[in-house]
Amino acid sequence: CVIKYYKTVSSTNNAAKLLAQQDAREGTIVVSEEQGNGKGRLSRCWFSPAQKGIWCSLILRPPFLPQEAPKCTLMAAVSICKAIRSLTGVQVGIKWPNDILYNGKKLVGILTEMNAEMDRINYVIIGMGINVNVTVKDMPVEIRNTATSLLQIIGKKVSRVRLLCAILAELENEYEIIKAAGFAPILEQWKKYSVTLGQKVKVIGINETFYGKAVDIDDYGALLVDTGEKIERALAGDVSIRP
Ligand code: BTN
């Protein structure tokens, strides 16, 4: 794969999008030491201090329908979860659809962006933000109670290069599995690491909010929530969930 390395960039997702529009190959990765304007989901900012984390975006051109793009997010979550667990032993879990948590605090965020033409995906950008060596002092006060880092959990620095290599190896492996055997094996692993299934959740959508128990995830990666009256389907991107 091709790795594009930057000292600083406004957002690796935006840089990757430009490359994808210029026909960059599948597997191209943009990595930056720092982001001036890192993007989170739901128009939030993503705090991305220099040399303290892995701020990167991967370009894929999967043979999926546009409505299957959330599979990429789940695949990335499983891959990152496995890489962190095997490299550091930290037993992280996945909160649907795209957060990796430890003790209820956010360690990783994933922002997937898609471009489709004629009902086929043209490219998917999987943006990954991993708080590796971010100290409490580095963090803006407003995220200190909800965010964490590997340094804060383990008490010592983790090599960002080793972790990124482990993540990319897992991603490549999972992507090959999807292409050869379909999405079921990924879904199975995702469920194993999930901290959302079985929990009571509040689903906040654009037009409606509902409460219920998260009971399953379907083949498209949508969360199924039992409200007591019916099973609601929550699609990533459209909703945020709270305990
Ligand atoms: C979230 O809100 O949880 C998603 C955060 C995604 C952050 C990453 S950092 C690398 C990539 N570039 C961005 O601008 N955002 C993603």
Automatic annotation (TrEMBL):
It is an enzyme of class 6 (ligase). Keywords: ATP-binding, Biotin, DNA-binding, Ligase, Nucleotide-binding, Repressor, Transcription, Transcription regulation. One of its GO terms (molecular function) is transferase activity. Residues 1-179 form the BPL/LPL catalytic domain. It catalyses: biotin + L-lysyl-[protein] + ATP = N(6)-biotinyl-L-lysyl-[protein] + AMP + diphosphate + H(+). GO terms for biological process: protein lipoylation; regulation of DNA-templated transcription. GO terms for cellular component: cytoplasm. Biotin binds at S11, T12, N13, Q35, K106. Acts both as a biotin--[acetyl-CoA-carboxylase] ligase and a repressor. This is Bifunctional ligase/repressor BirA. It comes from Pectinatus cerevisiiphilus.
